[in-house]
């Protein structure tokens, strides 16, 4: 199976197609986290704001976890992509100068409603259009009922 003189890694590498791997990262130290300069972070975040570019796509391109890139966007004050401003359109307006007739003066509608009187002799509802004499007569009538 294996050829003498060749290491297993060399055999695996020779079996793999050239277009299978795009990038190999060799970790040489014990560092657990990469440090990203602020200007590099800002440039990567800026790429996510371009039209038609997904955050995951930018993250893969730079070797960053998408969650890390979303965190950088939050830290930069970006919750989501800014909305595209809609184009402003105006409706056409045509003003014709004519002598407009003045509206006729309409009579106001007569007041509507009721006056409710409650006395010891009873209760009465009187239309507000009732004359003074009618209202006084009703008051006298309610007052006399009590006696």
From TrEMBL:
Task: Tell me the superkingdom of the source.
Answer: Bacteria
Q: Could you tell me the Gene Ontology terms of the biological process aspect for this record?
A: DNA transposition
Q: Which GO terms describe its molecular function?
A: sequence-specific DNA binding; transposase activity
> SUPFAM superfamilies annotated for this entry?
TrpR-like (SSF48295)
Q: Where is the signal peptide?
A: none
> What InterPro entries does the database record attribute to this sequence?
Transposase_8, Trp_repressor/repl_initiator
Coiled-coil ranges (or none):
none
Q: What is this protein called?
A: Transposase IS3/IS911 family protein
What organism does the UniProt record list as the source? Rhodomicrobium vannielii (strain ATCC 17100 / DSM 162 / LMG 4299 / NCIMB 10020 / ATH 3.1.1)
Lineage of the source organism?
Bacteria, Pseudomonadati, Pseudomonadota, Alphaproteobacteria, Hyphomicrobiales
């Amino acid at each position: 199976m294996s050829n003498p003189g060749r290491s297993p890694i060399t055999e695996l590498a020779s079996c793999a197609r050239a277009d299978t791997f795009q990038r190999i990262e060799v970790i040489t130290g014990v560092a657990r986290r990469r440090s990203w300069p602020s200007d590099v972070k800002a440039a990567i975040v800026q790429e996510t704001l371009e039209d038609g570019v997904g955050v995951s796509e930018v993250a893969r391109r730079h070797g960053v976890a998408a969650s890390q890139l979303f965190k950088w966007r939050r830290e930069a004050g970006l919750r989501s992509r800014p909305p595209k401003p809609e184009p402003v359109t105006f409706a056409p307006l045509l003003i014709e100068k004519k002598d407009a007739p003045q509206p006729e003066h309409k009579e106001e509608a007569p007041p509507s409603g009721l006056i409710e009187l409650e006395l010891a002799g009873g209760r009465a509802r009187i239309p507000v259009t009732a004359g003074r004499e009618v209202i006084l007569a009703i008051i006298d009538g309610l007052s006399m009922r009590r006696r």
